[in-house]
Amino acid sequence: MRTLNTVLALVLAIISSYVICSIVRADEPGEKIKKANLRVGTFDSRAVAVAFAPTKEFNQSIKQLMDEHKKAKAEGDEKKVKELEAMGKAMQQKAHMQAFSTASVSEILEHIKDQIPAIAKEAGVDVIVSKWDVVYQAPSAEFVDVTDLMIKPFHPSEKTLKIVESMKKIPPISLEEAKNIKD
User: Fold this and answer.
1) Which of 30, 34, 72, 110 could be stapled to 77 by a disulfide with Cβ–Cβ 3.0 to 4.6 Å?
2) Number of other CB atoms surrounding residue 173 within 10 Å
3) How would residue 138 be classed by pLDDT, with cut points 50, 70 and 90?
């Protein structure tokens, strides 16, 4: 039994020595681990909101809300009228926060979620994030503006493209300011 314990102790000592040597060797000067540069695609979320606003999907949701409002008014359902008016106001406020400030456009991106991997591949990026959500970047990280690729699936008109281009020169307003925009 004592011999078995001695053999086990010896095996554990050999394994421990191997592990320690491996760790020490990796830390030796001149043996730097090559780290791949991360390519991050960034987009201006305001541009996505502006490109989505004239789409058929967005306009159908507005039309549906207006039709429901009209029906509730005709039926004299004041409670439903007030609910729908509050929904409309909230939608407008959210649209202002997305188009003029830095509010998330995640629900808009749901409309093109199947196309995002192809956008990343076309841009040659590993990750895509809103440019307003980047809080730190390592010096080795490479950032690529993919805004134009992110709005392309919404088929923006020339007018929309001009608006998006002019937005690039204007910083977003604060969320509080956007929240308080009056129509």
Assistant:
1) 72
2) 17
3) confident
